[in-house]
Amino acid sequence: MDFKSSDTIPGPRTEDRLPHTAEAAVKIVIVGGFGVGKTTMVGSVSEIRPLTTEETMTQAGIGIDDNFGSASKTATTVAMDFGRISITDQLVLYLFGTPGQERFWFLWNGLFEGALGAVVLVDTRRLEVSFDVMGRLEERGVPFVVAVNSFPDAPRYPVAELRTALDLPEEIPILDCDVRRRASSRDVLMTLMRFLHSLAMKGALT
Amino acid sequence: MTPPQRQRRSPGQPPAVPPPADTPPKEGELRNPERLFVIGGEAGGERAADLDLVTLIVARADPPVSATPEQAAVLRLCAAPLSVAELSAYLSLPYSVVAVLLTDLLAAELVQARAPIVRQKVADRSLLEAVMHGLQKL
Q1: What angle do CA A106, B138, B115 make, to 5 degrees?
Q2: What DSSP assignment string belongs to A140-153?
Q3: pLDDT truncated to tens, each residue of chain A (206 aa)?
Q4: What is the DSSP string of chain B?
Q5: B115 interfacial to chain A (CB closer than 8 Å)
Q6: In 3D, which of B90, B80, B138, B55 has the Cα closest to residue A25?
């Protein structure tokens, strides 16, 4: 392995270190089509400069190269941008944005399974690019909210019309946002948390 | 102008992508691709899969003389708690490679792993309330 000497690896800046009391972390995943603003959203609320982690996977069994009938495996690298918010001295929240090819996100074992929930970021100019990812979240039972990142030249639809188009039940929140603004991104996360809380209340009652 | 129309899916529905038809699947690659550590077959007794992207890792000791450069780097970075994802980012190594490294370090008791809180069927309301409270301070 070509590895840099351990002395040359830049670690977290002093102010980016977590306190020793940090006991546990939770994560939220932000998904959406290319260029919809996932990385921007991570960056606008993160306390650290967003970082990138990656995973190398093989394509065998994904059904992408079916037409070629090839049994050979191609390594594919999936990158994931993430940021961090310290909730308390004990609890840390990580936000993962998912750039690149969405067909690979769900092969990253444990990315969605352990997540508290997800934010589906949509661009009304290309609503359909988020259809598949919503379906996959539904299949896996991952709760999510839909945040419409308002681009100036994008068509504006009433929420009711969007809800019908996205075939979403009444209880799933749909809200407008401007992910460049920290307060707006925070409101999206708060909406997700309130939604998860309402699900927990419902679960406790049944 | 009318937006395009989606169709809702439900939990447990089969994935939209069909498995490849013409190539006989080898063991373990029916649907999911292997992780690097499976391909390499390097992982020891403990399962690296028990780690999560947000498992917090803390060093328990200084790097021993026998430590590889990678292990020494992990131990140095984890002087304060650091998630597996952050380790992967700072080391510029894929997640599964870091998982293998950590599996060895855990077995040697050189690091401690603080498991993440994962989503339960019925979510922990006090946890959700703590996160909301933290977000309000942003």
Answers
A1: 45
A2: HT--EEEEEE--TT
A3: 556 555 667 889 988 999 999 999 999 999 988 888 999 999 999 999 999 998 887 665 444 444 444 455 677 788 889 999 999 999 999 999 986 566 677 767 678 878 999 999 999 999 998 898 899 899 889 999 999 998 888 999 999 999 999 999 999 999 999 999 999 999 999 999 999 999 998 876 66
A4: -PPP------TTPPPSSPPPSSSPPPTT-SSSPPPHHHHHT---SS-GGG--TT-EEEE-SPPPTT--HHHHHHHHHTTS-EEHHHHHHHHT--HHHHHHHHHHHHHTTSEEEE---PPPSS--HHHHHHHHHHHHT-
A5: yes
A6: B55
Q: Do the Cβ atoms of A25 and A91 come closer than 8 Å?
A: yes
Note the ipTM here: 0.86
Q: What are phi and psi of A123, to 5 degrees?
A: -120, 120
| Residue numbers of A between 20 and 79 with CB closer than 8 Å to B | 20, 22-27, 45, 51-63, 66, 69-71, 73, 77
Amino acid symbol at A161? E
Q: Which of A19, A58, A131 sits opposite B33 (nearest CB)?
A: A58
Which chain B residue is nearest to residue A186, measuring alpha carbons?
Answer: B135
Residue A83 Cα, gap to closest chain B Cα (Å): 9
CA B88 to chain centre: 10
Which one of 3.40.50.300, 3.20.20.70, 3.40.1620.10, 3.30.300.130 gives the CATH number of domain A20-62+74-205? 3.40.50.300
* Assessment of whether the complete model's pTM goes beyond 0.80: yes
